[in-house]
Amino acid sequence: MRGAGATGWVVGAYLGAILVFLYLPIAVMVAMAFNESVLYELPLRFSTVWFERLAGNERLLQATLNSLGLALANTVIATALGTLAALAFARYTFRGRALLRVLLFPPITIPWLIIGTAMLVMFFWTGIGRGLHAMLLGHVALSLPYVIVVVGARLGSYGPELEEAAATLGATPLQTLLRVTLPVIAPGVVAAALFAFAVSFDQFVISYFLAPPGVSTLPVEIYSAIRKGFTPEINAVSSIIIVVSMGVLVLFARLYRFGGVGRGDAG
Amino acid sequence: MSVVEIAGVVKRYAAQRVLDDVSLTIAEGEFFGLLGPSGSGKTTLLRAIAGFVAPEAGSIRIDAEDLTRVPVHRRGIGMVFQHYALFPHLSVFDNVAFGLAVRGTARAQVRARVQEMLRLVELESLVERRPAQLSGGQQQRVALARALVTRPRVLLLDEPLSALDKRLRLQMQVELRQIQREVGITTVFVTHDQEEALTLSDRIALLHEGRVVQCGAPAEVYERPRSVFAAQFLGAANFFAGRVAPDGDGESGAVDLDDGTRLFSAGTLPGPGQAVTLAVRPEKLLLGEGAPGGENVLSGTLVQAVYSGSSTAYYVQCGARQVTVFAQNRGEVRLEHGAAVSLSWSAADTVPLAPGEAG
After folding, report:
1. Angle in degrees, CA B251, B255, B259, rounded to 5
2. Can you give the pTM of this predicted structure?
3. Distance (Å, rounded) from C-alpha B258 to C-alpha B241?
4. In B38-77, which ranges are continuous DSSP H helix?
């Protein structure tokens, strides 16, 4: 037991170090968002001046709205298309299925910088051009593979028996989809939707390349603000994003626990 | 109460014929067993009746209505899957109610019917549970109630008891049969367990390599196997290969084995001089001379005796062949290894296998 105690202490210290490493920068940033000094001087004097200034920053607000709008539209479109694609992969055999399945993965592994460049060339060439519509297209293309993989994993944990059972009980294919398949894969679909949202909301490279002058998203705006001169307003907006992300994370964790129970049900 | 007619059904996967011209008629209210080793096509046949497998040729009819091209959900069947396939996100009540809910049945009616079904399978107290909170036996009953709730024309069971442990399996066999009789539904069930097939079925179809090799009542298929495969799959058997005695007129039933031994069979033999294989179940043989009508007698030495409680298996070397005898343990007759013994059995228990199917 004494040995285990010593090991426990080492493990604890190690874990603590990792947490400090991960969270200290974030903690500093959040603290500075509430510091009155523009030059990050200590001692910290509490102030919400940067949050107030943020409210008056039209550019940053517009960029945030663009980001949210893009992320939400992307989530709806990518989740819907990706879920249908995952269903097709899991439950139907068709010509070229294996090839298509393999082709899903390169977009995940190819650097976004390269994909972004390729899209820019492609959109210019086809006349799609730049703009929010082009950014949305790019985001959907990027997040589709993630959605298909996440929903596919959930579908893969069930055989076709549940759907077959529904059919023997008189359910039409549509009733089977709505009453059996979708409820059963719901946790996977929600997880995939969160992924799609994150891929879009975090997206810098694609947005940067495809945004026409005068249009920007939050990551792009933060980037240009840093280049111009780092003001604590950025800390303020980052703090808000962190709080929102943490909220989403908690939601995610709860859903995944629900998902775990769902998987147990199948056994 | 429905009749199922399967006529000339063929199904191929790649070049292999999984179902090779299968024809069967299943009578009203009958409990019909599809028995065979894995790969024999029994599950494919059941799935063809359900509508999951589309036959390339032949037809499947229920009550004279051709269902060969009708989709699963319009066939009016009930099915219990090997692993039950209960809906994990629904309670026991909603699982059983599913078939009624998709038909848009009125709520009050659904409630009454589901309760009736749960009473039938003795699960009324568990309506609110999720499938994950049920034991294997309970899940089985829910699956059965769910399949019966829509009053299907035919009930299909895919190895329904294979996931249960032995004790529970025996208990469920009895219950399954009781419920089936009570509901009076025509039932087709698939099993690879010959004992289960013999116990449950009114009739059995024995499948081998996509063909029905024998079909009949359990006792008939067991007592009168038509092939080496049928004899072996339904239990143990001794085989004697020989030729119909040339001097016999067929009436005497005399068969000469290659070592000159003459055996007698009461079955229908091919013409004099023709090759024939005789099959005898080990429990029909008697150690010592004295079987009722023991026309057949062999002598040999005891090689091994395997005691298993109610019975003992004796392995007797008779010349070049080894013969197996199952004997009930009635008295205290204990035979020593190497003891000289004689065996006898009646001609009535000596079954000639159909020519061409002997192999």
Report:
1. 160
2. 0.80
3. 7
4. 42-50
Residue with tokens 């000339």, as numbered in its chain: B8
A chain contacts of residue B73, beta-carbon cutoff 8 Å = 167-173
Closest C-alpha to B94, from A166, A168, A161, A160:
A166
pLDDT in tens, chain A (267 residues): 455 678 889 999 999 999 999 889 888 888 888 887 777 777 777 878 788 887 777 888 888 888 999 999 999 999 999 999 999 998 888 888 888 888 887 778 888 889 888 888 988 888 887 888 888 998 999 899 999 999 999 898 888 899 999 999 999 999 999 999 999 998 889 889 988 998 888 888 888 888 888 888 888 888 887 787 767 788 888 888 888 888 877 877 776 655 444 443 333
**Three-state secondary-structure class, residue B10:** strand
Whether B81 sits inside 8 A of A164 (CB atoms) is yes
Cβ pair A169:B99 closer than 8 A: yes
Question: In 3D, which of B157, B156, B159, B161 has the Cα closest to residue B139?
Answer: B161
ipTM score here? 0.84
Is A172 within 8 Å of chain B by CB?
A: yes
Amino acid occupying residue B135 = S
Contact B358, B269 (CB under 8 A): no
DSSP-derived letter for residue B271 is: S
DSSP state of A125: H
* Structure tokens belonging to residue B114: 């589901």
- Say if B167 is an interface residue toward chain A (CB within 8 Å): no
| Amino acid (1-letter code) at residue B126 | L
Give every CB contact of residue B93 below 8 A, 6+ residues apart in sequence.
B114, B118, B127, B128
Tell me the C-alpha distance between A203 and A139, whole Å. 8
Q: Write the Ramachandran bin of B338: left for phi over 0, alpha for psi from -120 to 50, otherwise beta.
A: left
